[in-house]
Every structure is written in C-alpha cells, then in structure tokens.
Amino acid sequence: MDSDVLLVIVVATALAFDFTNGFHDTANVVATAISTRAVPPRVAVLFASILNFVGAFVSLKVAATVASGIVDPDQITMTIVFAGLVGAIAWNLATWYFGLPSSSSHALIGGLVGSTVAAAGTGAVDGNGLLSKVIVPALIAPVLAFVVAGVAILVIYAIVGRMRPGPVTRGFRLGQLGSGGLLALSHGTNDAQKTMGIITLALVANGNISADNFHVPDWVVISSASAIALGTYIGGWRIIRTMGSRIIKMDSAQGFSSQSAGAVVILASSHFGYPLSTTHVINGGIMGAGAAKRLSAVRWGVAGNIVAAWILTLPAAAAGGALVYGLTRIFGTGATGPVVVLAAIVLGATALFGRRYREAMTPA
Amino acid sequence: MNLATVIDWNALGKVVLYSLAAGIGVPAVYAVAVLGAGRSVDAQRGGRGVLATVLALVAFVGGAACLGAIAYGIYLLTQKS
C-alpha cells in the first residue's frame, strides 16, 4: 500500500516537472517564429503545443538513457527517484526566484545522481554513462548549434544576398513554418522523454517493470506527452501577454537558420539517446545566426548565463537531491517522508510565488 | 577514466556530421528555392515566360526536396535500431 502511494506521488511529481518544463520552454520554441512575424503568436503556441505532443512519440532512446544509462536501476528505490525529482524542482524554484540561470534537464539528472549517491553510494552511478551520455554531449551540442546556424546563414546570404528583401522575407517566413514546427517536435522528443525515463525508473523500482525487460509503457508516453504539451500551451499565453523587447530582433532568414540548427542538433542527439538542455541548444543556434551577421548582435550575457548554468546546475541539483533524500529518510522508508517533503515544497513554492506576486504588485 | 575509450566518439561524430549536413544542406537548398521563386516572378514580369517556368520549377523542386529531407529524417528517428 505504502509503495503504491509512493508511486502515485512520484508519477504526479514527475508529470508536474514535465508540465513546468513545457511552461518554461515555450518562449524558446516560439519566440523566433513570433519575432520575425512568420506566425501569429496564438497560432505559434497552438502549433508548438501540438508538435510537442507528437514529438514525444518519435523516439524512446533518451528515456532509455535516463532510466538505465546513468544510474543502476537495480539499486534505485522510489524514494531515490522522488528525492532526485524534488531536488531538481527545488533548484529550479530557487534559480527562478533569485534570477539565476538554470537548465531543467541538467537539474533533473543532477538531482537523480545526487539522491542515488546519498542512498547507495557512488557505485550506483554509472560515471562513464554520465560523462559520455550527458556531460560531453551537453558541452558539444550548443556549440554545434552555434556553428551550424552560423554557417547556414552565411550560405543563405550568399545565395539570396542580391535579391530584393521582400521576396526573401516572405520566402523564409514560409520556411519558418517548417523549421519552427521541427523545432517544437524536437523539443517534445528530447524533453518529454526525460520524464518518461524517470517514471519508468520508478516503475522498475516498484517492481512493475523488470530491469532486464526494460520498456516504456504506453500510458507513460501518453501522459508525459500530454503534460509537456499542456505546459507549452499554458506557458504560451503568458508569453503572448508579456511579449516585447525581451525577444531579440532577427530577420526571417536568421530565424529559419537558427530554428533549423536547433532542431537538427536536438533530433540527431535524441536519436543517439543524449538528454540535452534544449534551451542551451536553441540559444546556441540563435547566437550563431546572430554572430554570423554581426558579432555585436549576440547577447553575450546569455552566453555567459549558459556557461554558468553548465557549471552550477549539475552539482547544485545533485546536492539538493542528496539533501532531500536525507530529509525523506528521517521519516523511514515508507510514504510518510515523501508526503511531508512534498507538502513542504508546495508550501515553499506557494510562499515564493506569493512574495514575487506582492513584489510585482507593489509600486516602486 | 580514459576519455578516448569512455566516450562513444562514433555516435558523437555522427551527431556532428548529421547536424552539419542537414542543418546547412536543407537551408541551402531552401535558399535556392527562395531564389528560384523570386527570380521567377521577376522573369514573368519581364515577359520571359520560359525562364520564369524553369525558375518556378527550381523553386518547386527545392521546396519538395526540403520537405522530403525532413520526412526522411523523421522516418529515420522512428526506426528503433
């Protein structure tokens, strides 16, 4: 009974994490298409939401990496998965509140590694898997997107550079329907699979799935796809309302090349099971398309934030995961610890949101 | 820990290669399609009907090739091996 309650808590927490992932990332996925006026904002958000959902069904290799390539599934308990998830959520909340850069994907993996080390020691973490499937691809992918987008925009300018601006703008706005759609699809593919991997790991820990006969159940795929798509859709309405100077200015050819670069890097990485920070890759593509035209067009502050997020997120979320595991175990191995910790997180998050809301409402 | 043996350079190399090929190749072909469409309209206005048709065909083939490449890429992704 206790384990079933715990499983429900872990699945609900994982889906909540997936929802917030979509909620946060809508801006990355649709901003380029909206800023070049390729698509009206409402259509862009709906389009992105649907393709996020579809993308979650494309591949399961990233889910397999998260579920079996980073930690030893045989040594994982549901409390470990829960603590890893809460460590990631706590880190995301803290970085959101203090305005620090972060990455949901790195936080999730960091949290899981931290809680695993706290519970079962370093032997339960596959160090080689962590390095080869997470850390090295995380370093390479944004740089690759930067280079691909930069070279692509130079090639595009070489081909259409002598044309009148009107037909070029219209042509690449049309192209952005395809590249923007592919980007949303790739986002759903990589990010939703991380949640699928976490839920599958919990199912293995609970004995619902054998570690030797690893597979992702259909209901896990459908619920993860739905959570990220819903998050994207609801997050989009917030973006539409607050849209303005935060979105960078670029021409439609730059938008097209940056979206294409982001999409192909995420899709190619997903094919080999690499869980990436899609935010970092998309920003890498945007900066590459900007730098190729004019170095000063690049928001180097964003580049600095990405580097800081690389350095900070994994160890900080790992410390969070380990801490949450320790707190949870104070109450034993049953469902009591997770229930108490979850209640504390919900209360803490509500207090943070309330404080931010009051600050926003108070005249300066 | 030896990086040379731990990292699957073959898989990472393929990610880099596929990304460069698709991320630069498809936009380049699409740019040719945009060029063909724009020049086709100009040729039409200049009364050069045959050239306009040929350029329109270039635009169509370029656009179709991009769609085909995207469809093929997604097909490859859905394959299990």
What can you see in these coordinates?
The complex is a heterodimer of chains A (364) and B (81). Chain A has 12 helices and no strands. By secondary structure, chain A is mostly helical. In chain A, α5 packs parallel to α11 (300-329). Chain A starts with a helix and ends with a helix. The mean pLDDT of chain B is 90. Chain B starts with a helix and ends with a helix. Chain B is mainly α and 81 residues long. Chain B is 88% helix and 0% strand. The radius of gyration of chain B is 19 Å and the shape is elongated. In chain B, 30% of the residues are buried.
Mean pLDDT of chain B: 90
| CA distance, first residue to last residue of chain B | 28 Å
Task: Please report the number of helical segments of chain B.
Answer: 3
Q: Tell me the number of helical segments of chain A per DSSP (H or I, 4 or more residues long).
A: 12
The secondary-structure element order of chain A is HHHHHHHHHHHH
**Mean pLDDT over the full residue set of chain A:** 87
Gross geometry of chain B? elongated
> Which pair of chains has the greatest number of interface residues, and how are they split between the two chains?
A-B, 47 and 37 residues
Report the major sheet of chain A.
none
How much of the sequence lies in strands of chain B comes to under 5%
Kindly, what is the distance between the CA atoms of the first and last residues of chain A, rounded to a whole number of angstroms?
52 Å
The SSE order of chain B reads HHH
| Poorly predicted residue ranges of chain B | none
Largest sheet of chain B: none
